[in-house]
Automatic annotation (TrEMBL):
This is MBL fold hydrolase. CDD domains: AHL_lactonase_MBL-fold (cd07729). Its cofactor is Zn(2+). PANTHER family: 102 KBASES UNSTABLE REGION: FROM 1 TO 119443 (PTHR42978:SF2), QUORUM-QUENCHING LACTONASE YTNP-RELATED-RELATED (PTHR42978). It comes from the Bacteria. Pfam families: Lactamase_B. The lineage of its organism: Bacteria, Bacillati, Actinomycetota, Actinomycetes, Bifidobacteriales. GO terms for molecular function: hydrolase activity; metal ion binding. The keyword Transcription regulation does not apply.
Amino acid sequence: MTNNSANNSAISIQVMVAGRVRVSPDLPFGNGCGLVRGSGFFVPASKRIWLPVCAFLVTTPHGRILFDTGWGRDMSPDGVYDRGAQIRSLGSWSLYRVNQGVVGPGMTVPEQLAAQGLSPADLDVVAISHLDCDHANGLRGVRDARRIMVSRDEMRCATRFPNSLVRFNASWWRGIDLDLYDWNDHEGPAGRSYDLFGDRSVQLINIPGHTDGQVAMKITAPSGRYVLLFADGGYATRSWRDMVTSGIVYDRHAQRSSLEWIREQSLSPLCVRSVACHDTANRPETILLS
């Protein structure tokens, strides 16, 4: 692994707000209400809510790691809401009805990297939490990263019928050299995890329920203090605080078990921060970990 970090002892987690998504309130906080209500297919724009779409740039002594990609520029070619462009980018009118997105000027991950004098080629690892559109739509923009990782269980979930027709679109990752990894450790609610560097400093921990192969990222300093990035294991702090699961649930029992684990991890005195991808409290910032 190439070490690109400026300070070999530093660990930082940069929250990158890489666009917004508009959804039915029942999608993030529907508590297992089901596909019809959770998708918000018939919910008008006036009753939807806007949520941030975040990616995370993690800098460790092992190198730079990007967790998720946010939207690609082709969602908003001119930096504004563009219905036609979104349908083309998502490859599905039905997906557009569930997720309306926008990514403003300078907000894609490659654009934010460039503003820091970096490029996707400077990324040692891109780790995708799961393959939903607002997490993987920007994959093509970071295809020059040294390693792009998706759990094998997640790829099986995304390519299984009918998921491959109604929820996921292989065009987001087609032609990209993906490292489909199997679990090599036993952390987390399902006892399945991947220790990225062999020292448990960065762990990809399976939190099934929203999808089969979704992972949280746990970044741990030598002190034992850690930051938890829990993707869509919950949509906000209130998700684990009040035990509110999402509306669309792939496996309701697994999702609740995962959320209980996120709550336990978040309440630990060793936890510096726990961050969901779509919490409305998310702002661009850098979290330092020591």
